[in-house]
UniProtKB/TrEMBL annotation:
It comes from Seriola lalandi dorsalis. Its main location: membrane. It is a multi-pass membrane protein. This is Growth hormone secretagogue receptor type 1. The lineage of its organism: Eukaryota, Metazoa, Chordata, Craniata, Vertebrata. It comes from the Eukaryota.
Amino acid sequence: ILFSTSVLAVIELCVTVIYIPLMLFGLLGNILTILVVWLRPHMRSSTYLYLSSMAVSDLLILLLLPLDLYKLWRPRPWLLGDLACKLTMFLSECCTFCTILHITFLSLERYMAVCWPITAKTLVTRRRTRALIGCLWLGAAVSAAPVTLVGLKHKQMT
């Protein structure tokens, strides 16, 4: 189905109107989460380490939203260069994978805490959680790396 340009413009405007408050509230919420966890030593449990790391991942996704709006309003030509194109795609994919992995491993940790509380107390430590979070970021980066190998080239119209 082909949309008229006026319908597409309305859709683009609606997406922009929704994106901007989401981005602002998301930035505020994630920055506050990171600050609270890192400024209060008693909130550095493994659960809060996952949440603060996930807040960093979400913060990066939110910081890329203006580029998504740029691509929406001006899809071609991409004026920011090949490196910026590949980097934004990589960061977007990496942070998305990372958020999914954080939710998964946080859920597994909570499951262990409920089903095997004594084992979880000895197995889940802050040091292991930090190492696991590092592995999550590394795994997400490796999973997102193939995005950098893909690209589209468009001929310049003269």
